[in-house]
Amino acid sequence: MNAYFASVEEMVNPKIRGKPILVTGAPEGRSVVCTASYPAREYGIQSGMSLKEALRLCPHAVVVTGNPSRYTATLSQLVKMLEGFTHLIEIASVDEVYMNVSDIVGEGGKERAKELAGELRMAVVNGLDLPCSVGIAPNKVMAKFASGLKKPMGETVIAHNEIEEVLENLPVDALPGIGTKLAIRLKGLGITTCGELGRAPVGLLKARFGVVGIALKAMGQGVADTPLVPYYEVPEAKSVGHSVTLPEDIYDMERVKGVVFSLSEKVGRRMRRRGYRGRRVQAVVRRGDFTSVVKHRTLKRPTDDAREIYKTAVGLIEGIGIDERGVRMLGVSVSLIEIGGEILPLFEGGMRERALIEALDAVNDRYGEFTVSWARAYLSRYRLWHVPMSRRPAELVGN
What we know:
Elements: H1 4-12, E1 21-24, E2 33-36, H2 38-41, H3 51-57, E3 62-65, H4 68-82, E4 89-93, E5 96-99, H5 102-105, H6 109-128, E6 134-136, H7 140-147, E7 155-157, H8 163-167, H9 180-187, H10 194-199, H11 202-209, H12 212-220, E8 239-250, H13 253-274, E9 276-287, E10 292-303, H14 306-320, E11 327-339, H15 348-367, H16 375-385
Parallel strand pairs: 1-3, 6-7
Antiparallel strand pairs: 1-2, 4-5, 8-11, 9-10, 9-11
């Protein structure tokens, strides 16, 4: 998908279509650009750039707070539509899927593949009113590479007998999976192009990169045997977590606790939705100087209760402590996941609390995320992000 988050926002709000759009993770304060529309990119704005810097480059840009649930819902629509072509679909990320189209192309070769690329692209444009680029090649690495050659709204087909020529003079960091740091290390070995990488002695690459060296040589040759895994066969998650970069460094433990509660609530809700429970709670604190501390604790019984996750996470963070460097980022996750099984409280109080949690989930499932929540979560959101609420914090009762 092309500038996916921004494109979805244009679809929802046609008034901003064609304008420079910056999709961010927070409405104000210290935030970064998650996605920039193509008109915004003409000003030199890139994903990961601070919002402040992006607005300096393009003061008239339209800033939109990202809506993850909207993007995942649109992805579901995309997958459902693509299943009209094949059920062999792997979800690589919220804006990218692989499809095994071997049976569709059949004996038609490259010409049929070109036709199919156009059919796929137009199906997305007509069905969802969203731009995308399509790449078709003999394997996943080359297909991903091909899909990035013509953006936006491009179609590229690379046949098996064309791979060597295509890669010969291509910089190594043009291949998916090879970033700037790895490219610098390869340059130290005298390797700057994919052709050179493909011809490099495997012993040399293994000596420098270990077993990864074997995969690097194969990538330089355009060879990849990673199978396509349909989304309905993906193994269950090993952990569930959330993190947030704060709008400003904070130095007060009470404010930290509020953020941790909000994160814990998100984690617990995701776990309950999937039928997960976990026994290990992990907390991450990144300080103002970008140093990070990670701690975890294993519970006696698995849980999906946000309050228990919160209690454990806060205990870990209190052990880490807050100093003059402040707190820049916080994260909470739960691992050692167990799937299925019903939680049976032993006492009446526990049964009532479980019923309350299930009632909250039912309301939020029907009316949208965080329609109703614990007061502490609303207070933390208000204080940190200044999110408008139907009730002011002073009117909230309970915890």
